[in-house]
């Protein structure tokens, strides 16, 4: 950030009164420009196969970063939406999939890139899905077929691992209901873009 | 938003390619300025009283909006934090209270004002608390003493109501563990500030 979006004059970094953090402050109109983390909302789309085994829908990315790698449908929550609405919209956009019985499943803070992932479990409606504009492929996977070495984002890998662990516990009746997993994900340094605007 | 924070030229509203929403786009450098919801992180601080009854800590606001009304410690999550770290920081700042055993308890989308509240249950450490700079008072309340008619924010009232309901169910053994409540809160029109920057 170099200029004030209210008046077009230069901004400077300063700690405002009653604050303890450096903020961008306009040298002319004195507007303080706060910068805050963004929510990435997505889904873990599930369906019971004809073989009696529950499957997970993954999307192969048609965009950078991580072109050609697999992920869950997810993207930035927009103004005017609820978190669920954002998760459903992203699922529709990336996988043309409709979901019901949505339940918040994982909340992952990524403090190094100022993002919070919020992933909802949901049941695929009508066994219907196909690649949206940002996906090359959409495919159902059994746990043992998940392409672990071709996953786009570790934060998604971690959510899937939590889910398969929970599912095993539930099969063994050690888990009465799925709990929300609230985790912190430390992004490897090599992926950090420190050029904050 | 009137000016580009990258180059200082004017912004215009336009739907960028491969997008379907109006964004602020710089007429000169073509930077797209996305606007996204903010997370408000806070806590529901709990302590078992000497009378064997669990109490909730509330803060009386020393700042606008809702000066003089009661609320839970909460505030905007900052860049570089996890959601929990933000909730703990706000609790420290507003009530000089330290908490442990933090568990995500409610997630409330407020689409009309582009906020998502995330409130964590936590146990007060050392029975120690006092008003921070943004609070006039901090006080422990039994359920029947909660000043329901003097609460600052309906979203906080709703979280407290969920909690007392859950606690009753747990006493009756109808609830094995507290679940996360994921709710949508519709802000009454009179509170809406539509002057988005
Ligand atoms: Zn300015
Ligand atoms: Zn520009």
Task: Write the SSE topology.
The structure is a homodimer of 197-residue chains.
Chain A (H helix, E strand, L loop, with lengths): L10 E4 L8 E4 L5 E2 L4 E11 L5 E8 L8 E2 L2 E3 L6 H13 L3 E12 L4 E10 L10 E7 L12 H18 L9 E4 L13
Parallel strand pairs in A: 4-9, 8-11
Antiparallel strand pairs in A: 1-2, 2-3, 4-5, 4-7, 5-6, 5-10, 8-9
Bound molecules: zinc ion (2 copies).
One zinc ion binds next to loops of chain B.
| Quantity of strands of chain A, as a count | 11
First-residue to last-residue Cα separation of chain A: 5 Å
CATH architecture of the largest domain in chain A: Alpha-Beta Complex
Oligomer: homodimer
Which structural category do the helix and sheet elements of chain A fall into? alpha+beta
- Profile the largest sheet of chain A: 8 strands, mixed
Q: What radius of gyration of chain A results from the CA coordinates?
A: 20 Å
The most extensive contact between chains is: A-B, 48 and 48 residues
What is the number of domains of chain A? 2
Helix-strand pattern of chain A:
EEEEEEEHEEEHE
Strand content of chain A: 25-35%
Bound molecules: zinc ion
Shape of chain A: elongated
Enumerate how many helices of chain A there are, as a single number.
2
So, the CATH homologous superfamily of the largest domain in chain A? Nucleoside Triphosphate Pyrophosphohydrolase
CATH class placement of the largest domain in chain A: Alpha Beta
Q: Which percent bin holds the helix content of chain A?
A: 10-25%
